[in-house]
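Annex B.
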Amino acid sequence: MQQRTFAGGVLVPACSPCDEQGAFLEDVYAALLEESLREPLDGAYLCGGTGDGMHMRLEERKAAIRTGVALCRQAGKRSLVQVGAPTMRDALELAAYAAECGADGISSVPLAGFPHAVQMQYYRALIKAGGGLPAILYYMPQPGASFTLGEVLETLSIEGVAGIKCSSDDLFFTEQLAAEKPAGSVLFSGKDEYLAPAVIHGAEGGIGVWATVFPRAYVAIFRYARAGKLAEAFALQRVLNALCCRVLRYGLLSGYAAIRHYLGLHERVFRAPQPQFDPDTYDGFIREAAPLIDQLRACPCPPEPKGDNA
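Dihydrodipicolinate synthase family protein: predicted structure tokens.
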């Protein structure tokens, strides 16, 4: 199998809107993704954590993949499909479907509760099912899915694995990955709170929830950091982190839903029993958050990179 690569840059993790019963709203999804792809983003990450893919039915995920890949192609941008699922059988089926739809790459969280040797077998099977599409590991340490640096690096050495999205709270772990990953392997930062530091230390891309509502600010942080314009990058990073502090105090998913409500966007994007928009606490939260939201939304279109092969 010829080794395939996947370029870096900023991918928006597309939301998968739903109704009160949790049913996927494909038309709303398409409209939101089309709007995102008009921003200075490099593509979309479909059915990931922000996309609530693990809580969608298989046929709903296929609809999201089919529509999302088509919209990315129409916009001349890349599509990366998160195919991880509660069962390996479903993950392999989704990988094959992503390839059938013409996705540019596949991605997957590890199989929860299984040792490293099984994860190696799993990613090889995914790559085969996906017809050789480049695969991006999705690493977010949590109970049942936490691995050593050496184990992650070994998985990155599998033929067909083109990189990793790292959402570890440990910035130094991300720095180690940047320093030791195989040549040609791409590293996406999945932790928005340290996007600028991750890029400064070698990350070639970013995939994070705040790109869905602050696409220009997110891309600006990435591009400024990559260009070595640290003052500009950290000025925006500080504003984003100040908002993150308020959101986490309020509750991440409830806070995110409140911000979407404030911006006039469809607010139900996570399925029950996950937290939803809370009208009883909205006013108090938005009084604190609105100035920061407005500042991030007002960020001008970031400068185009020059001679950057991210």
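The longest helix spans residues 230-250. The mean pLDDT is 95. Further annotation is deferred to the next reporting cycle.
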